[in-house]
Write the structure tokens for this entry.
Amino acid sequence: MIKNGIPNAFTLGNLFCGFLSIVFSASGDLKNAALLIIIGMMLDSMDGRLARILKVESSLGKELDSLSDVVSFGVAPAILVYYISFSQHGFVGLVIAGLFPLFGAYRLARFNIEKNTSNSHFTGVPITAAGGILTVLCTLHQWIPNIILDASFMALCFLMISKYKIASFKNIPLPRYGTIITILLGCTLFLIYKSKHSELPYFIYVAVPLYIAFISYRLIKRKDEKNRKNQNK
């Protein structure tokens, strides 16, 4: 059925954003590389919810989501921070940057085999959140000292594999979570437009309308559900 492939299409879109981000980083367009990671966050926030809405959750989708997250929120941010900060340290900087996807992959693998998972919290910082935070810091690198970026990088690496309990977004209504990602996207777009020599990737003209339509649909659906509950009382 077509609807079975819809959530996976968004997951693959997230993975493709990660690939494009790596290409942009390698070509020196670091702002668009950061933007593509943020777009990946938008798509990642939609795939699981779409699977639950359409009632097509599957083990394949979960595994595909984990593999995509390693690329988009592990490898892509690591390459971005390498070109911004660590490349000046040569091979040592390359090794340090490589820690981020390694720790992120370990964190995802640990999460996937956990038997007792909670909807209220995560154990360790999720790779999506860590990659997003690192990406925003990379976008702001012209305004913050390198020591803050480097220290945040190392802290996020260890927080991903830590045993700290981190509040989960699963219990937060989508519009609030969507607002967080939309704000990140807006800030990144503003910084890109501030640059005279940067053009937006065409993928954004597909991803942003889809995301706005999805948020609008969820808002309308939540409003209808509240009205039904009030009528049944």
